[in-house]
Write the structure tokens for this entry.
Amino acid sequence: MRRILLSTAKIVISVALLYLALRKVDLSELFSRFTITSLFWIGVAIAITFLQIFVGVLRWREISAACGAPLELGRAMRYNVIGSFFNQTLPSAIGGDAVRLWLVARAGAGWRAATYSIFVDRAIGLIALAILIVASLPWSYTLITDPHGRSALLLIDLLALAGGVGFLIFGALKWRWLKTWWATHHIHACAVIANRVIFSRTRGPIIAILSVLVHVLAVVIAWCVVQSIAAPVRFSDVFLLVPPVMLITMMPISIAGWGVREATMSLAFGFAGLSANEGVNVSLLFGAVFFMVGAVGGLVWILSAEKAAQGSTPIGVPE
């Protein structure tokens, strides 16, 4: 019953926020701006989205190896593409992570190693996004003159950065009870792995580059969407506005970020002195690109060996 209520609440939030955002949009005017060139830019955005997934795969493989769940490149790519489908269909922005976890555990890595690899991967991605936003704050403050927008941006980013740094500090603590008490044991273990990966001389630089590249590619995808409708928005505007929106969208309070992303993008564009309507337009097409990629992921899932064999293979859980 609790799961049903949570899913219903997320659906209601998505629908309500989408309704409020779409009231500002003239869909007929938006469709009238589509040309053959628009289709080209949408195609480029889809291609870059698959590139983003591949970069995420490279990072995940580095992290999963440190968690005791090594993955072949092809298998990891397939799992991430499948995850993109479930990100769009399950009532959460992180539904694909749950499916990836299940697939890795089912492949023989075990629930513990699979869970650690997904959790650490998410945590490192969040830390990288928060650092990227902090690094761009001087330029963001030049773009965003509204005091409320500045305060909201600073507060959200500091909370995310504080959570990430606190997570890493937690992993550096040596108190013995952290490893024995059930409430802290697994979180502490994940934090230890995150520290080991981030500050490794061999893996650390690779993880850092891949993490930043994942978020930069999200900006490029949004820029392609901007180009597809010839919106009067500069690349620098997109680079400064999209990462904070993606940070807020990571909150699992809606269906695949729908509604939350549109409302946040509208506010962000408005705070930056741009058209709030264009913010909603860009967000809708941005979401549509990921929806189309997710549809490909659904086809991969239907044709995958994992789908055909579900329920017939035992799941190994190592000690």
